[in-house]
């Protein structure tokens, strides 16, 4: 039948082809428009007396305060000085909102994490209890980006995963030194700079700033250090000299290059990739990687029998992790025996400069460090001879991370057969597109900026943390649509609860209470919140099980919407105390995942604007369509009215007739072309 096409002729100018939109744009951070919190709401020395929130409608005056002696949840801001790079550029007054359990035991959150934190260690292919080398302090190094292009979703996956780890370690009250390097000189940067006829410094700075903007929009906390490779040339040269002096490296006079002699370390390749020396021969790498990864997966299956990680997550890891077994061609040295190498598996420590390339002086002539030595030298010069955690994508396991281990051992002349210079090695899975790793070399990537032009940053982050960090993610628009819908539902609930709490006749605007009856009711209601936050903390303590943490917030969302919208919920005597307790717990929980923003209404407004962008219309055009539908309803042309509603729904615009808050529509999942 052609009823719908005829009836909806009015919609023709606004129809767009859905399914072909490339997913980025996000909103900015902001503060409450109705609420503000005291500037420092919690400090380590606080006796946990709490002032209530400040209401701007009362001219910034406090509408009540109370000294809490019962368990509740709060969010606190800490000032932190962050050093970016070895040059010491300092960004002061950086605020990080940390969620903690309050009450009888103010250290409850940190004790849960410190007592139960287990992380998967690629060294032993098993989850291990995390204990820092130095009590109370953690050193963590994560391999950063090579800044020759805009960062893509695969980069976002890695740095969001380690941002969650960084947040967990901080919530455990560890003093964390988080170092994430920047590779600002390599073959790709040189080639791109020559192509664009600009200096490597200009190119690297352009894409470094682009990367930092992407990380900020994804709500990733800045690391404590972001050293650049070009700022640590001396450290790299010194390390190469030690390697050569210890008999593990050699200089090739004809080329001016310096190579690492893999054959001098019998244990090379056995730490992470579990390769034998014969596997280093040409053509043997793929077989060794597949064997090592399947051993890793088998160990993980056995280790998670009694784990809270679901069987579904484990099965997904096993299915998808094998897809990450292709060699990281970009990190392999392409030179063969003819280039002066003694063995095809030897890798470059120092590369002599070609005409027109940037160079630095060294004992072997002008040139630059190889990629692998950059990380090793920065780790040891900035964090020390031994660190707690070293992280990166699974494609870096071999050869990059194995080469780092070899270089550190060769430079100090020590043997660490049982371990490496890092206690834990952590690797995140790939983002796949059509069962292939998303990468620039394959041309199947979407930049973070492209995605954020169409989807909110919270939706992208939800999409990323919705899968366990070690499992591969299949990038699809449908998955982004689902994440967008769920994140809108989360913030719509938070906004509705805040508006409803304004109607509380006892506490008015405050999220706390001085009424004894209300206080007892809230103390009882807070048990729901305590259960939620403890579930989230235990999930994150179990090797960052973010899918379990995401699943845990479904219950408070249901409770809050029942209290908001059902007849039974609206009549409940403990309605407002339960709403306050569950709202605080919900905020604390999403903060653990890095998805807390202070102004729900602003987030909702940004999500609506992006929904219109995906639908290919603006607010004025939507108003015209809504007016046509209103006219159709007035004239009782329900066929046209229903058709307009269905057409809008197909484009992700769900109408809300009779919504209590006056909303006329909300974003929804679009009907995507297969």
Principal-axes shape call: globular
What share of residues are in beta strands?
5-15%
Count of helical segments? 21
Helical/strand content category = alpha+beta
Uncertain segments are: 1-7, 14-106, 302-332
Mean pLDDT: 79
- Count of DSSP E strands? 21
Radius of gyration: 28 Å
Portion of residues in helices?
Answer: 40-55%
Biggest β-sheet: strands ordered side by side in the sheet: 10-9-15-16
The span between the termini is 22 Å
Question: Which descriptors apply to this entry?
Answer:
4-stranded parallel β-sheet, alpha+beta, 4-stranded antiparallel β-sheet, 21 helices, 42% helix, disordered N terminus, 674 residues
Describe the structure in your own words.
With 674 residues, this protein is α+β, with helices and mostly antiparallel strands. 42% of the residues lie in helices and 15% in strands. Helix 7 (285-303) runs antiparallel to helix 8.
What are the SSEs and their pairings?
Elements: H1 3-7, E1 35-36, E2 50-51, E3 54-55, E4 65-66, E5 72-84, E6 89-102, H2 108-116, E7 118-121, E8 126-129, E9 137-142, H3 153-171, E10 175-180, H4 187-196, H5 200-217, H6 233-245, E11 249-252, E12 257-260, H7 285-303, H8 311-321, E13 347-352, E14 367-369, H9 371-382, E15 387-393, H10 397-412, E16 422-428, E17 431-433, E18 436-437, H11 448-451, H12 457-465, E19 473-474, H13 477-501, H14 516-541, H15 546-552, H16 554-565, H17 567-571, H18 575-592, H19 600-615, H20 619-634, H21 638-650, E20 653-655, E21 665-667
Parallel strand pairs: 9-10, 9-15, 15-16, 17-19
Antiparallel strand pairs: 1-3, 2-4, 5-6, 7-8, 11-12, 12-13, 13-14, 17-18, 20-21
